[in-house]
Write a structure and sequence with these properties.
six-stranded mixed β-sheet; single chain; disordered N terminus; globular; five-stranded mixed β-sheet; 443 residues; alpha+beta
């Protein structure tokens, strides 16, 4: 039974109207549009909290490539009241930690602390987001660090094959570019570029302050009202829509191992088949019992590593299979892999669906034991769907899937779409994307 105050708060909360809020979750919206959401776990002595911004690498203009990632780095390099060392020492003096991450569609700044240190964490997070100085000396130093990070990624064939895969899938578009940028673009940015990007994209309506653990919702709202009030209430610039194109990025190179990614257009977060795509990826290559692992590695020993994945974005998606193998095994590997994808469009067994569903359900439940996972998940749900989604609702969506729906999806994903092929290493014997498409469309 809700108390009178709880009922009033939910009645006034637009995010709750689409469905009942998950247990122990409370949501408030500040006057500038910034959403505050908490997920209370009273049995813990700690809390995880952060600010998630609906702005990532795909929101960058051509001349801004890599600036979202650079801004994430620079947020910790000094404010009007704290030096970079002060930021690190103050959070670590209480045994906490603070970090950040940039993805294609979001940037997050987060901390983990004991429950009594939540006010300090909020103060530090608000300070780095509202008062960063972006001093030139610190900027040049951090640009050099990112150039080393880019160099390290370019030395990793597995990183390169995935960067090339996304570039081929979304040719000439922001979503197809590496998140870190290029040495040329990263080196070109000034402090004014950072301030301009921050002003364009960090607005209240596309920001979420999320906290999970032993937290007090009303106390966090009061702190947020003071510390995050400077963010504007106008909506931020909408990203340019992306269109899957498909293509090839095959580089024959003298390496010990061949890295191969075969992909197809997946489903966006809001699409009907998003959850079906997640389950299909698990069924095909999500574990040791999956079709691809059993057929390719266990029965035939054609590769060391093979798995399937599905990445959802706000308006598109990518479904892919990654394999790492020796040159001598490519000729046998590819027909077997393609045949397993083609067969998924003909038949899926109920036991396979149940097993994949159990894997996803268990992973979700296990992640709910971590306050950091819960805070991140609920923040992304609000940015994507406009409201928190309960575990019961997620489970209902999984339970609604049928083998016929999955096999129909597989037939459409693999048999009708233009594939994307990315490979690096000794891959001269790799079939062309046209040959792969012909194999998959054969019935």
């Amino acid at each position: 039974m809700l108390t009178k105050n709880e009922a009033a708060r939910r009645d006034a909360n637009p995010l709750a109207k689409a469905g009942e809020l998950p247990r122990n979750v409370e949501v408030s919206k500040l006057p500038n549009g910034l959403t505050v959401v908490t997920d209370r776990m009273d049995h813990l002595e700690s809390a995880a909290l952060g600010v998630w911004v609906k702005a990532g690498s795909r929101d960058e203009l051509d001349h801004e490539h890599g600036i979202a990632h650079l801004l994430e780095h620079m947020a910790f390099k000094g404010t009007a009241s704290r030096s970079a060392r002060d930021i690190a020492e103050q959070i670590e003096n209480v045994g906490g930690d603070v970090n950040a991450a940039t993805s294609a569609e979001t940037t997050s700044f987060y901390a983990r602390v004991l429950k009594d240190d939540v006010p300090l964490a909020i103060d530090i997070l608000s300070d780095i987001l509202t008062n960063s100085l972006f001093e030139e000396e610190e900027l040049r130093r951090e640009q050099h660090v990112i150039l080393q990070e880019i160099g390290a990624a370019m030395d990793s064939p597995e990183d390169v094959v995935f960067d090339n895969f996304q570039a081929a899938a979304y040719s000439g578009q922001a979503l197809g570019r590496p998140i870190m940028g290029t040495p040329e673009t990263v080196s070109s940015f000034s402090a004014d570029h950072l301030r301009s990007y921050l002003a364009d994209h960090y607005h209240g309506p596309n920001m979420v302050l999320a906290a999970s653990g032993n937290v007090d919702h009303d106390a966090i709202v009061r702190m947020a009202e003071t510390r995050f009030a400077s963010f504007g209430a106008a909506p931020a610039r909408e990203p340019v829509g992306c269109r899957y194109s498909g293509g090839e990025a095959v580089h024959n190179k003298a390496l010990q191992e061949a890295q191969i990614v075969l992909g197809f257009e997946g489903r966006a977060y809001h699409a009907r088949d998003f959850y079906a795509s997640q389950v299909l990826a698990t069924l095909l290559g999500g574990g040791m019992s999956s079709r691809l692992f059993q057929e390719v590695r266990e029965k035939r020993g054609l590769c060391y590593s093979i798995y399937a994945f599905h990445w959802g974005f706000s308006d598109t998606g990518l479904f892919g299979i990654h394999a790492a193998t020796e040159e001598a095994d490519i000729e046998q590997l590819m027909p077997v892999m393609l045949e397993e994808l083609r067969k998924a469009g003909d038949f899926i067994d109920e036991s396979e669906l149940n097993r994949a569903r159990a894997q996803i359900s268990a992973g979700l439940m296990m992640s709910m034991e971590s306050p950091a996972s819960r805070a991140g998940q609920i923040a992304r749900q609000i940015l994507l769907y406009g409201r928190p989604i309960s575990n019961d609702e997620l489970m209902d969506r999984l339970q609604a899937l049928t083998v016929d729906r999955l096999s129909d999806l597989a037939a459409r994903l693999f048999g009708e779409a233009q594939p994307t092929v990315s490979a690096i290493g000794p891959v001269a014997s790799l079939p062309s994307s046209a040959d792969m498409a012909a194999h998959l469309s054969a019935r």
